Amino acid sequence: MVRPAHRRPGQSRKAQYSLFVAYVIAVTGAVAGLLLAILSVVDPVGFAQLRVASQEIAAPIARGSRSIIGSISGIDDTVGAYVSAGTQNRRLRKELADTRRELVATSSLQEENRQLKALLKLQETDKTALANGYLLTSTSTSSKRIALLSIGRNLGVAAGQPVRGADGLIGRVLGAGPSVSQVLLLTDVDNIVPVRRARDGLPALASGRGNGDLDVRTLNIANNPFKPGDILVTSGTGGLYPPNIPVAIVVRRQDDGALARPLADPGKVDAVSVLRPYTPDNIEAQGLPGPATPSATPPVPTGAP
């Protein structure tokens, strides 16, 4: 038989006890409240002492509840601080990345401006400059070191013309198209440049190693006077490259010469100038100095490598 959904309290002994206890508690509370009210009027001093005693009894409970509430609040603050720190950290990382990009862009512009100013200053004193352009790309892993120049036959660029940057020699034009050209870099194994030591005019030959460095050998094999820090410039011997263009700096002495590093790194150079090939006729006509070594061999015809 199904039990009825709602049973009266009188039909359940448990419900009767619960109702009785509730009545007793209510009546006891009302009586206690009435007695306290009467006590507060009849004996205020005693009522005050009773209140203090009740507060002393309730104090440990209040302290415990306050500690629990404080711990819960601390956990909430910790979680909030963690979330806020994560958001702030992401924002700071983004700002740092933006600042780094701006710094790189600014440094690149400053370097480009420096090179352009240096080339402009060179043009004011060096009349061999034919045209100015930019190195668009350059090979860095292949043994064949070739760069792409942003100008071509439209500005008079032709094969065999020297190319220099603000810091030194870059190479020579390998082939010219209508609007772009190929430059055989100084570090290519097929590029050999007559050089001299800047401080005393010691003649030597610099050849590319295909890895970004240069081998430097003196004309006298028995004599190897190179030292780290020696600056090498073009000598003008053999024609093609005008004299006194910075080429490289010696970094290490070797058994048969020296290892040198180009002063103008094609991977970092942007603006370059294409020069007229060096011959005694076109240099002397413009009043420019010739080779620094009196014992230099006679120049070969224009355009010879």
Describe it.
It is a single chain. With 305 residues, this protein is an alpha+beta fold. It has 2 domains: 43-125; 129-284, Beta Barrel (Thrombin, subunit H), CATH 2.40.10. The chain has 3 helices and 12 strands, in the order ααββββββββββββα. It has a 6-stranded antiparallel beta barrel with strand order 1-2-5-4-3-12. Strands 6-7-8-11-10-9 form a 6-stranded antiparallel beta barrel. Residues 283-305 have low confidence and may be disordered.
What does the secondary structure layout of this molecule look like, with pairings?
Elements: H1 13-42, H2 44-125, E1 129-138, E2 146-149, E3 162-165, E4 169-176, E5 181-185, E6 192-197, E7 203-208, E8 214-218, E9 231-234, E10 246-254, E11 257-262, E12 271-275, H3 280-284
Antiparallel strand pairs: 1-2, 1-12, 2-5, 3-4, 3-12, 4-5, 6-7, 6-9, 7-8, 8-11, 9-10, 10-11
Helix pairs in contact: 1-2
Produce a short descriptive summary:
The protein is of the alpha+beta class. It folds into two domains: 43-125; 129-284, Rod shape-determining protein MreC, domain 1 (Thrombin, subunit H, Beta Barrel).
